[in-house]
Amino acid sequence: MSTPRVLVVDDEVDIRKLIEITLARMGVDTDAAENVERAREQLAERPFDLCLTDMRMPDGTGKDLVRHIQQTHPDIPVAVITAYGNTDDAVECMKLGAFDFVSKPVDIHVLRKLVESALTLRQSASPTAPGPRETALIGETPSIRQLRKTIEKLGRSQAPVYITGESGTGKELVARLIHEQGARRNGPFVPVNCGAIPGELMESELFGHLRGSFTGANQDKEGLFQAADGGTLFLDEVADLPLLMQVKLLRAIQERSIRPVGGKSEVPIDVRIVSATHHDLAARVQQGEFRQDLFYRLNVIQVSVPPLRERAADIPLLAGRLLGGIAERYGLTEAPRLTEAALGQLAAHSFPGNVRELDNVLERAVALADDDVIDVDDLQLDVMPRSVDAGQTDEADGLRGELEELERQRILEALQATRFNKTKAAERLGMSFRQLRYRTKKLGID
Hints:
- This protein has helices spanning 13-25, 36-45, 62-72, 87-96, 108-124, 142-154, 171-180, 202-207, 224-227, 243-255, 281-286, 292-298, 315-329, 340-348, 354-368, 376-379, 393-417, 422-429, 433-442, and strands at 5-9, 29-33, 50-54, 56-57, 60-61, 78-82, 100-103, 161-164, 189-193, 208-209, 221-222, 232-236, 257-258, 267-268, 272-277, 301-304, 337-338, 373-374.
- Strands 2-1-3-6-7 form a five-stranded parallel beta sheet, with helices on both faces.
- Helix 15 (354-368) runs antiparallel to helix 19 (433-442), helix 17 crosses helix 18 and helix 18 (422-429) packs across helix 19 (433-442).
- Strand 13 and strand 14 form a beta hairpin.
- It has 19 helices and 18 strands.
- The chain is elongated, with a radius of gyration of 26 Å.
């Protein structure tokens, strides 16, 4: 394998020398250019594995060089060196296609990690490199094909990504794919649902805490930022972050460091931030519920996941894959199949719950079907609500929990009355053996 080569572009001799010495110790060769014109000449003369460029030079800017490399050498990662605290230029460069940025004064530790990530990405793009781990994004409609292309392109960047889409469309799946196709694929992928963490525990969960920092803190705890170090932190439902935590998250992103609760010093972190929400975050900004500066930091690159009703032609492919997974989960020897009439009804349904709802519908249909063929009656789509108001969600969840608990009690009573003979218990409950097996697994009854 040939020695990696990096082009260093900076009009300050001391900066160039510092970077050249650092990279030489990593076993990386370097060429230097003092301005944009000379950098373009060298890019035309020989191949490079990475370009590190200063933001301001006598004959142009780092943005000019990023644009040039994107047009003429899109396979070369380019990172920019910015003045301390001036992340606006860095964000704009990443929007243009830059891989990452590092601030002056250059932190050698940060620089080494950046170079290692960029070279990993470069090697993974070679024909002999192993492909990313298989995580399926099923569909052949134009919107899904375009989404796959976008994900592949985002793998060549470290820029924060903001994923929009309705509930159940697969935003976490998209986030995982971005992680798996990028330079951080060998690092951790840490998902966190911001809406599921109580506000008073949010800071401790994200940044960690030291022993004795508050009542109940009996030992040091690593936060989710530290758990994701070297990988990707996926902030799902980021719109639910309290305003105070938005301030602290913004600082963590800008400074690339966090301070655990009770800590006196900063801890450097190396994570890529991917966030998502089903809310209109721009509207939240207008309403004063979400900080505009944090929105700009998170929304460097925006990805939209289409709802299922806009890609109904993908439903047969999705249904086939989901039925295969359901059969595997419930120990069926063969995946059930859908009749043409059942497929037609699925295609006509609006699916307010999107792919998650489709999975639930099929899971229930497998339990209700008398054999390995699912027909229209097994889908029970006529009793499915077409939409749920946001204000009714908590009430609906509570009612669902009460009904499930009642069902669990009735099933346990039937099992105990029949000495846990499932066939007799199913008869006693007026359902098929398959239906009982499905419900016991669904309700966690062993």
